[in-house]
User: Fold this.
Amino acid sequence: MTFNARGQSLSGRVTEAKMKVFKALETKGIVISKNTDGIVGHTSDQDWLSSSSIAYAELGLIFVLLTYILFNNRKMRAKARKLSEDLRRMKIDRESDKSERDHLHNDLVESRAMAEDFKAELSRLKDAENDEQAKREVELQVQANTVVWDKPENPTRITEILYSRYADLIDGFSASELLPREDKDTVFEITLLSPNKASFRVSVNPVAQKYALSNADYFLEQTCHYDTFPSGLIVNEKPGLLSLLGGKWEIKEKATISFK
Assistant:
């Protein structure tokens, strides 16, 4: 019930009480006229004092009744306010409890997630440890079954030497004309340094040297440097250098020789 409704109810009660007083006075022979200034009455020949006392008593009763109604109304409103405040507090407490329950629920969910993560990490570490242990066992087994052989010595590099009777290309030797073995007329000895590099010198075989000196201009002039007349024993001072170009061992640097 709203405040205006309560006021209208109280006003109705006061009006009803006034009407009861007027009727009571009229039954006593008092003439009542109702106006805004109050109550004015005329008595009959009966005892006016007795009638007035009764009227005032009834008015007092009405006053007491109104006072009780007002007091009771205030009390009811106070109870209503207290009830409203209690309801508000209960609502706040309920919302607070709900918020706390939600918070606890979230903490529980987070704790479970952390527990699952920890469990997964523990499982991963355990698997890694097992893999590492298995790897060590395999390595130990391989080491136990490995036979250590003596390291073989580096094979001695065999230098390939070819021979040529003369520089058939004037400034070099034909690769196809080189011989694998020395002969009495093989004037030049060619040592392979790599697939396309080689060095050469005059053979130390006395028969081959005598054959070269028999026609020094033909055999030695295009292939060797020398300062004296070719005669006697040929001495190799510095080997010449060759480079393979296609099928030709081209002379890049002449050999240096001397005689004694």
Notes: The first helix runs from residue 3 to 27. Residues 109 and 115 are 10 Å apart (CA to CA). The two ends are 150 Å apart (CA to CA). The helical segments are 3-27, 48-145, 206-213, 216-219.
